[in-house]
Amino acid sequence: MSWIITYPAIQAAQSGQPPPADWSWTSIIVVDCVLACVTLVGHWYPWAELRTEFTEEGISRPILFGHRMMLWNTVTRVGVLVSSGVNIIEIWSGKHRVKINPLYYKDSDKLFAVIREYAPASAFN
Fold this sequence. Notes:
Layout: H1 3-14, H2 25-50, E1 53-54, E2 58-63, E3 66-71, E4 77-83, E5 86-93, E6 96-100, H3 108-118
Antiparallel strand pairs: 1-2, 2-3, 4-5, 5-6
């Protein structure tokens, strides 16, 4: 998307012309950086979802700098949030929450079974 602006500006610069229309190099760089950030944010959640690990010990999910580990014995609530017709599993531990989208998993029934097996029974009330 940013090439719509950047590529013509590069071509103009190579031929000794100013950037097209009312664009300056500063505004082109700002637009490119904003588009790069939007793209990264848009890809972060699916990447983090796919890197989430369920073990006997707990749930490990990537955060901006490292991983957050939520131990099963600290889970206080498990619920289902319906968002745009998709059931999102919310798992709470204290003030932290992990949202799991079953659509990212090959076998959502197995995902539910793992959560039911390891999370405390009191978390489902």
